[in-house]
Amino acid sequence: MNPTDYSYEYAKIYKFITQHKNYKDEVTSLKNFLISKSFNINSTLLSVGCGICLHENRLAEEGYKLIATDNSKAMLNLAQKESNKNISFFSSLKEIPKKCDSTFAISLFNVVNCLDNIQELISFFKEINNSLLLGAGFFFESWNLYPCILEPPKNVEREFGNKNSQNFLIRKAFPKFDVLNQKLIIKYLIIGKFNDEEINLTSKHRLKIFSINEIEYALQE
């Protein structure tokens, strides 16, 4: 997993440039899913690839106890500064105590696609499994290879904030999809101002688009 594209400069504007996501409704849906799986609010929820904890803080406010981990030091540091007391932080899965009593794990924002190949995916699933109690559950998001082939990702431009305010950013996304190698590189260009500071940032996110069959195979392994 490559955390280098999630720099401090990117982390500090991350919440602002993801404001189009409805975190409140997503957390409500996630809570309902956990309830349907008989997840006990007194048990510990493991979040892998937590970013700056935009979902996790809302869950913590609802009374959930969480263990959060992310490979990006910049994202994790910012998460810790703004975190709820119900969240414990670790920089990797290997640092998590063996007896953490986690009965459910989540991995949002397509974290699995930051892995380079099927062997890394298998190792990723094994590490998560080792951090969970027997019979625990795991919910994760992933890009789907087949729709990407049928309708490849397109360039997207979004504006955030008001041009006359101290926070106004334009984010342009330029995806390049290598179908043969199942590789997706998304180049982000972010320009504007944030807290009245000029922003001119380029970030590249390198993703591996696994098929459903590959994911099922890795889970079985």
Tell me about this structure.
By secondary structure, this protein is an alpha/beta fold. The protein is about 30% helix and about 30% strand. The protein is built from seven helices and nine strands; from the N terminus they run ααβαβαββαβαββββα. A hairpin with a 4-residue loop joins strand 7 and strand 8 (about 185-195). The two termini are about 20 Å apart.
Secondary-structure element pattern, one letter each: HHEHEHEEHEHEEEEH
Largest sheet: 5 strands, parallel
**Structural class, judged by helices and strands?**
alpha/beta
List low-pLDDT spans. Answer: none
* Overall 3D shape: globular
Q: In percent, how helical is the residue content?
A: 25-40%
Residue-averaged pLDDT, rounded? 92
Q: Report the strand count.
A: 9
Radius of gyration: 18 Å
- By DSSP (H or I, 4+ residues per run), the number of helices equals 7
Distance between the termini: 19 Å
Mind sketching the topology for me?
Elements: H1 8-17, H2 23-36, E1 44-48, H3 56-61, E2 65-69, H4 73-81, E3 87-90, E4 102-107, H5 118-130, E5 137-140, H6 145-150, E6 156-161, E7 168-178, E8 183-194, E9 197-208, H7 212-220
Parallel strand pairs: 1-2, 1-4, 2-3, 4-5
Antiparallel strand pairs: 6-7, 7-8, 8-9
Describe the structure using short key phrases:
30% helix; globular; 221 residues
Task: Give a brief outline of the structure.
It is built from seven helices and nine strands. The chain is of the alpha/beta class and 221 residues long. It starts with 7 loop residues before the first helix and ends with a helix.
